[in-house]
Structures are given as C-alpha cells and as structure tokens.
C-alpha cells in the first residue's frame, strides 16, 4: 500500500492500538486479534499492533491497514519501539502495512542513529511505510527531514525531556501540524472522544487510541479513582 492509499483509508478516523505486553492481563494468543475484530466492528479505520504473531493474526482477521511495532528492550539504549532493523524485519515479514519506529533523537542499540535506521529500512523494505513516533517538535522536524512518511506524538511524556502529564500533548500535536510538512497522527493519552475530535480539528490525519479502549485494567482504574473522589449525597454525607 502506498502512502496515498494508506492516507485515503485512515483520513479523519480512529486507529485502535491493540497491544498487551507479557505482564499485562490480556496478553496471550488470540486476545488482541479479537480486540481488533471488535475495533473494526466499531468503525476503526486501522489497527496498531505489537509483535509478529499479533500482527500476522490481526492481518488474517481484519481487513484494515495495520501499523506494526515490535517492543524490545536492549541493555544499551532506552529505545524500545522497533529499535533496530531486526524488529523492522519482524514487522515487515508479518505483513504490516506500516512500521512505527521510535523516532526520538536518542541512539538506538549499538549506537545506531535514526538516520542510519531509516536508510536501512528504505533499502531493505522499500514498500514499507514508516511512522515516526516522536516526543518533541524538533524530533518531528528531524524525522520528516530524514524521510519518514508520517509523524506521531506517541513518545511525548515518555522521554526525560518531554512534558510528563496525563493529558494528550495538544501543544505538540498542534505544533507538528503547523511546522512539519508530512501528515501527523495523534497518539498518546487520548482518553475521550472529545479529545480525539480535538486532534482532528487541529489538523491530524488520524487518531490512535490504545489504553482507553483495549486496556481494561486502565479503564477500570479511571472508574475506581473517580469513585474514590465521589462525595455521596444523603445519609453518608450528613453523617458526622
Ligand atoms: C509510549 C509507548 O510505549 N506507547 C505504546 C506505543 O505503541 C503503547 O503502549 C500505547 O498504548 C500507544 O501509544 C497508545 O497510547 P495510549 O495507550 O495512551 O492511547
């Protein structure tokens, strides 16, 4: 799928991130593909998935473009979203339409720079579209200059030098739309339909939502924390 065809499919829509890593309650064979089927039934225009097995099974079950990542930790780098060509290879051979990579300015394992990684991806997988996950405007500008197809706000709050709040980074999203000349995808901490609407109104081509749809433990926590703040009306409230 080329970039225009992908954009055509996702424009203005919701991409659902269906991910559960090993220590999460929903990790395990078959669960995320069912999530993806549910997301498609609800009208999602694309799926973001982690790991070759989930990507392959989701591609087999849903007729939607898939953005693939492989999360892997290395001892010599903090970068864990598709950090080297090895993980890109796993994403590509599983059949993803797009590979998302950490496109922050930090070095990848073995001292690999973002520039080198992108040029190796282009050489080895010329068909694969690249989504660059960034945490700042400078990183977005740099990733675009290095040739990624789309940038996303995914990493805001996950690098030591970006703002760590529980809200989507609307400031970054707006700045990326205004200053970067490739399509921008909003991703990260988008918890409500209103927040998703705001991202599209700011000019993003699509919105990725993960935890608020596919991590029930997180959704449960938001209810529990709200209830802890609730002040009951009636008898309990009047009690001394
Ligand atoms: C920073 C990082 O590792 N983000 C990951 C990237 O794929 C996922 O864990 C997130 O769920 C995804 O970005 C969607 O974000 P949210 O779950 O906040 O809607």
3D structure, described in words:
Pathway: Amino-sugar metabolism; N-acetylneuraminate degradation; D-fructose 6-phosphate from N-acetylneuraminate: step 3/5. This is Putative N-acetylmannosamine-6-phosphate 2-epimerase. Converts N-acetylmannosamine-6-phosphate (ManNAc-6-P) to N-acetylglucosamine-6-phosphate (GlcNAc-6-P). It catalyses: an N-acyl-D-glucosamine 6-phosphate = an N-acyl-D-mannosamine 6-phosphate. Belongs to the NanE family. This protein is an alpha/beta fold and 240 residues long. It has a single domain (3-238), classed as Alpha-Beta Barrel (TIM Barrel), CATH 3.20.20.70. The chain is 41% helix and 15% strand. It contains eleven helices and eight strands. The chain has helices spanning 3-10, 31-41, 52-61, 85-93, 114-124, 137-145, 170-179, 193-201, 211-214, 216-229, 235-238, and strands spanning 13-18, 46-50, 66-69, 98-102, 129-133, 150-152, 184-187, 206-209. It has an eight-stranded parallel β-barrel with strand order 1-2-3-4-5-6-7-8, surrounded by seven helices. β4, α5 (114-124) and β5 form a beta-alpha-beta unit. α2 packs across α3 (52-61). The longest helix has 14 residues, at 216-229. The protein is globular. The structure holds N-acetylmannosamine-6-phosphate (LRY). N-acetylmannosamine-6-phosphate (LRY) binds next to β8 and α9.
